[in-house]
């Protein structure tokens, strides 16, 4: 705890130093919301003479070196940049604690030419006027493929802009289709029950009773100490306290021009009342408050329940269940029911792993869009050409983590469609050619299960294969307008980063006591006020300051 507190204090002091030194030349952050007008021009020509840029690495970037002589300054990527573009990368420093070392560099006013930053650092650098406006070089040097990707992900790209100017290239993420929660039901039991439509919460309770009467289940569903099932089932009651997968807070329109925490919604009482009733009826573990994730997995493996609120990656955690209970004992993702039968809305949040930026005054800012474009080319265009040897492409794939400040994460939409369309075409007796290299990989993995019942392919099958697959479910929810975007669309303010974990713990402990009947349902109002006083009010003020 002392070490963690020391690190927090150091970061806070460095932030204050940056603002104090550079505030006089800071920019107005503006409101964002501008979509870049990309001009399609060539980006592939090498520089006539060698140009050099400095950068920095964290040791996490070096965990997949492929050859014994590779170092941070000499990798498969740096060699390609020099050979193909006449661009030389020089690494100024390497650190196990990249963010702390970067904060030190920012405070000293000594930053690399091109480097990766995280949301708080991006905001600091922009405020201090230390990073370059890359609007013109982005328009001129971004490849059409990367431009198309950023246009599709414009809600994320917009967070890298201020007043119509671009100051970073976002790293992006796997996409919003991967964020939504899922109602998973055991396939063999569900089919034995006649595959009934589960449209309402009452329908779901009836299915719980069927599984207990017909299949020997002892629980309606499963829960453990982090109460993830509560968060992931909240949309059944049109309550949206947190995002589904990593627990960030949801901020919603308060009807008066501001944003309010999802905890403030009256529907939270309906959510808690339902789980409290399940507990009282013995439909969840009576000792869930002291059990961890392994108990949830055990309840599935042992056939105690056939209903789970989970994420799209569930099947990678329960392969032993299928091996123990037979090939039809895997789980299907059903549409999330609701208390009134209306389509569920799924909370999705801003997600961007990092930003790539250029030091203000660097004479070759075009290097950033050129090398980011090349990264996308390697993984999403070159595999369909003869421009690069296939063995070399495999080496690049294995080394994708060590590309430093040019790595871009492709959302999985096209990959999902590749698997889905391939299997649908095969069922019709037709053929289908995958459009992405990742799609080719996903198809091969999916077929391990579809054709051979090899459990190593079940995870991918359960995500992409059909309308009961999790990522297909996410894709359909997006198509049908069922995404509820977080009102705080962008990186969280520092106040939220500082207070979120502690205030979430307060909520989790208090909600657990209500569910278990230790406290009455009305205790929710006391708990909510405790959350406000412990930091909820401060977070709300910060969110409205930055996003309204």
Question: Can you walk me through this structure?
Answer:
This protein has 548 residues and is mainly alpha-helical. The protein has 2 domains: 2-174 and 355-406, D-Maltodextrin-Binding Protein, domain 2; 180-348 and 483-547, D-Maltodextrin-Binding Protein, domain 2. It contains 21 helices and 14 strands. The chain has a 3-stranded antiparallel β-sheet with strand order 3-13-6. A 3-stranded antiparallel β-sheet has the order 10-7-11. Strand 8 (251-253) and strand 9 (259-261) form a beta hairpin. Helix 17 (437-452) packs across helix 18. The longest helix is centred in the last third of the chain and has 25 residues, at 523-547. The two termini are 35 Å apart. The model is unreliable at 1-40 (pLDDT under 50).
Please sum up the structure shown.
With 548 residues, this protein is mainly alpha-helical. It is built from 21 helices and 14 strands.
